[in-house]
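Hi team,

Filling in the usual template for the complex we talked about on Friday. All components are listed, including any nucleic acid strands or ligand strings, so the model treats them as one assembly.

SUBMITTER: L.P.
PURPOSE: interface mapping
COMPONENTS: two
RESIDUES: 725
SEQUENCES:
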Amino acid sequence: MTTGSAEKINGAKALIKCLEKEGVDILFGYPGGQIIPFYNELYDSNMRHILVRHEQAAAHAADGYARATGKIGVCVSTSGPGATNLVTGIATAYMDSVPIVALTGQVPTSMIGNDAFQEADITGITQPITKHNYLVQDAKELPRILKEAFHIAYTGRPGPVLIDLPKDIQNTEIDFYYPEKVEMRGYKPTYKGNIQQIKRAAEEILNSSMPVIYAGGGVISSNSSCELVELAETINAPVTTTLMGISSIPTDHPLYIGMLGMHGSKYANYAVQESDLIIAVGARFDDRVTGKLESFAPNARVIHIDVDPAEISKNVKVHIPIVGDAKQVLKSLNKYVKRCNSEAWIEKINKWKKEYPLTYKQMSPDGVMPQFVIEQISKVCNDAIIVTEVGQHQMWAAQYFNYRKPRTFITSGGLGTMGYGFPAAMGAKVGRPDKTVIDIAGDGSFQMNSQELATVVQNKIPVVVVILNNGYLGMVRQWQELFYERRYSCTFIKGSVDFVKLAEAYGALGLRAERPSEVGPAIEEAVRSGRPAVVDVIVECEANVYPMVPAGAAINEILDQVEH
Amino acid sequence: MKHTLAVLVENKSGVLSRVASLFSRRGYNIDSLAVGVTEDSDISRITIVVHGDDHVLEQVTKQLNKLVDVIKVSDIGGEDTVERELVLIKVAANVDTRAEIIQIADIFRAKIVDVAPKSMIVEVTGDESKVQAIKKLLRQFGIKEMVRTGKIALIRSPKKD
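RESULT (copied from the run log):
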């Protein structure tokens, strides 16, 4: 099937037209030899292109854009090193099921396989980290491939799709038709849950007196937060979320019990362990969540709602699997469920909440506790989109910020990519210019992509980076402190750079806070400036993330303090 | 436990590599793999013999189904199937042993496809047990080289209609 009449254009122009047809209005990329024809056509297009300073940032920015908006993010690079620089970003998106499309230049088809200059087998390299990828070998196929790529990235369990574009393909003239529909016999995701299974689940819920809803990133990506909250309120069950599921239910909701797993709340972990029924929605029983698998929730029956059948019973045995889109399944399930007899259970959990709250102690009179910084951010801009890097600050951001709306917490959960946050924040801000976007960073992570300060300044993307600067690669240092006799091997990074001057050198606003009283005002000033800003907060250098489930322990063996 | 999977895939370049790399990435072991085009030239059929428990088989099947180029995956191990494998065995042979090897080949309805002064090549077609049996008998003469195509299989049609 085709639309409109054919017109003769080259492959590069066809690509631009395909992107426009897919509603793409923003690209993150970096040009190079083998993608010049595409950039040449882009010159005449109305699409906005954000020129990053490293291709990795293009992939992360596309990812951040996708997570913040729910749309598909697009990144572009040249062949060889340009393409391989995207790899970490693509893997990040793959692990967290984020829909991005990556376009890479490639050497001309006649030279593929010859170890040509800047040649890399990027489809081979990205095979295990993409949902699907294409090496275009015939320019006539371009429109179909583009159509398929966007379809695959967005539907079912979302994920990254890469299209490798040899230079001669970009230059070849074709008759351009854009297909209206995709026809792929090997790709038909299931959306509607099996109704018998849904009824069985409703019955199981009714018979439960200690249920826990365990919500993951799938709730956010399928936009089913409302349905999730409705389910929780109808059946009267507590909700715990994974790191990826944070913001799927307001964190101040009375039924919310926080994150579970390694750095989850004590009460969430206790609740899951003692529960008689786990209702997993769009979550995958990751090892950071389950702890020691054999002793995970020993008395619980498990209902698992997921769009990806391969996640069912992968790690934990599932009693009632429901394959389908979380939104559709929850909508349907909500019609059948009734309030279950969980009053005593909720009471018990509320008691745990009071008994084991998330807290921290001031370590020195004038020192800034990192948790306090997160609380200040939460106070100063409660409506912000929070993006994080990876490490201690990420866990504190997960624990201490009050999230109210879905898609306001953006973090690399599965791959745990340091350097993700800043470029992802840039993408999020471009996608949601109406929102304050804050990258909560560590002094280690931020330095992995700090070159993007140039990008945000040049393109006037006012993201605020708040660095919890403790002079260490903190999470590794914490493990070294607790499990390696304080042998801080290669984790001390104090004095790396003056972040304020670094920001200023790039033309961004640089601020520093060294005392608790300075933190709130500095963040406020940065947000109010309307400029890209870096707030360097000097925090206690040996603060730890607690509570903590030691690796390999059951999740109810969660500690407030690890003895050493 | 061994399972035989019949995997119908798009007949495109790179598909076999996707299937093979999936096995290595997820840590599944392939015993044998045979691939060729089907009655529809756009579709290839990969016959994979894999060993593992039911959990492994379930995961293999689901992960294969996730590949966009995979059209259908069926576990045909439990079905009534015709299974065949082609094996070429180069066996050491001289004037004294040649006749005996020919005799063994005859019994198995195998063919002698090459004769040289010091060896001969036996072509065997059959299922796993037949291949094992002839291999065992030929071993006494000295197997110099052996090559196998991997198993292919088709489900028999119902005998009653």
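MY TAKE: The mean pLDDT of chain B is 93. Helices of chain B lie at 15-26, 54-66, 98-107, 128-139.

Thanks, L.
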